[in-house]
Amino acid sequence: MANFSAKMLILAAVLTACLAGCPKSLPPVAAFTASPLFGQAALPVHFTDMSLSGTADIVEWHWDFGDGGASADRNPDHTYTSPGVYTVSLEVITGDGSSTVVANDYVTVTANDVPMWNAAALQAVAAAKWMPPQAARGLAMMHGAMYDAVNTVDRKGAPFHVNTVTQAGTLKEAALAKAAHRVLTWLFPAQTAAFDAQLDASLAPIPDGDGKTHGIALGLRIADAILQWRSNDNSQMMMMDPFLGGTNPGEWRPTPPDNLPGMFEHWQHVTPFALAAGNQFRPGPPPALDSAAYAAAFNETKTVGAKTGATRTMDQSMMATFWVGMPGTVGEAGRMNQAAQQALAAQPHTLYDTARLFALVNVALADAAIAGIDCKYAYVFWRPITAIREAANDGNDETGADAGWEPYIGTPAHPEYISTHSTLTKAASTVLASFFGADAADITLPSFMDPAMTRHYASFSQIAEEAGLSRIYGGIHFRFSYEAGSQMGQQIGEHVWNNSMALN
């Protein structure tokens, strides 16, 4: 800004000299201000012309924003989509001449921290071998805290959970980083060193001062409030008797080869983030065992999902194995976060919008997990391996028993109806399509087993559709469970989008 002050002094001297005999014309003196001068990509900056016109009106403004962008407006807005330090210039023109001012290294833009903290969280989920319900809850907590930290400064929408205020000048970048760090160290204390390193990297480019200090304090305060809220949400494993289901036709019971009791039975009691209750969108029951609808779904899974002798295509087999979410991977919740990362990389958004998107996606995922497990333990429906082996007892002449039948992939240890793969992915894809204003996308997801093996998707809904169908091809779900799960996922995604973190 020193060059601005020098030009102002020159003009003042010229005007003083005018008292003794002012020249007939004076050229303009270019000057400007802008705000903010620091932030994370994509960073919108407002530029304000402060030029003095001399003896004639300014008729032209020529801005060069330093990143290839330009404007002829007097007071333009410009968004920097890539990290960098940018030199800005302004030329103003009057009938009596022109003037140019150059502000070197004027605007500093750093990388958007939201995707980086998201990636750190996914790595932590895989390292801790968390299952999808746990992962979705943890991600919703972290991203909810990050959103509230940014929103408290920007005040652009409804809060996620924490409605508070902060001092003027608080830097949201510092608040966001500290909120993410606090939640992750609470969730994964064994990985604190990695989160400390990420926090140092996030805070390093932020200018020191009260704004940074207030931001760190704000992020900590918001994160602690969310941790207190979720500390009693019934997600901790309850002391419950092993769930063994029943022995009547249609009732779930432990499945070969491990014959484990039902997992995550307690998750049906977890407090939702956005839903009024886990059963808010619970679908009706599965088809009756003696119905044509049941027989059709039964026979489809029996033929297409068998371990041997199946009618599966090569691509369907690849789908089935691609979507097996074993411990040590990011699971289907992580995959939908990866899809969000890629979509944002292709269409950069502001820090606020990015924080809001990840919060919405993960709240939808978390509530879909709660609702899906609620449904599983409400209906306690048997898995295909049990249904096919014991079909002689189902009262349906259109089904046939096969005592040696095995599915293509391993059967999870919980009831069949509905497919939570379908529910989670459809809830997230619904939010993503709503945020970007279109379902079309260009997403490539890596295999859990070999990152070099990938699958490409042309839309968010295609991801959800494939995730759901993969469970039929794997022999562990019926089509009606895929369809009911997908419908419930869409209802949850729409509910979250329409009712959570609404814009002002």
Protein described:
By secondary structure, this protein is an alpha+beta fold. It has three domains: 2-18 and 25-110, Immunoglobulin-like, CATH 2.60.40.10; 118-230, no CATH class; 265-499, Vanadium-containing Chloroperoxidase, domain 2 (Orthogonal Bundle), CATH 1.10.606. 46% of the residues lie in helices and 13% in strands. The chain has helices spanning 2-21, 113-128, 132-154, 172-187, 192-203, 210-230, 292-304, 314-322, 331-346, 351-379, 384-389, 420-436, 460-473, 479-499; strands at 32-35, 38-40, 43-49, 58-64, 70-71, 77-80, 84-94, 97-110, 440-446, 454-459. The strands form three sheets. It has a five-stranded mixed β-sheet, with no helix packed on it. It has a three-stranded antiparallel β-sheet with strand order 1-3-6, with no helix packed on it. Strand 4 (58-64) and strand 5 (70-71) form a beta hairpin. Helix 2 packs parallel to helix 4. It is elongated and about 105 Å long. It starts with a helix and ends in a 5-residue tail after the last helix.
Blueprint of the fold:
Layout: H1 2-21, E1 32-35, E2 38-40, E3 43-49, E4 58-64, E5 70-71, E6 77-80, E7 84-94, E8 97-110, H2 113-128, H3 132-154, H4 172-187, H5 192-203, H6 210-230, H7 292-304, H8 314-322, H9 331-346, H10 351-379, H11 384-389, H12 420-436, E9 440-446, E10 454-459, H13 460-473, H14 479-499
Parallel strand pairs: 2-8
Antiparallel strand pairs: 1-3, 3-6, 4-5, 4-7, 7-8, 9-10
Helix pairs in contact: 2-3, 2-4, 2-9, 2-10, 3-4, 3-6, 3-9, 3-10, 4-5, 4-6, 8-13, 9-10, 9-12, 10-12, 10-14, 12-13, 12-14, 13-14
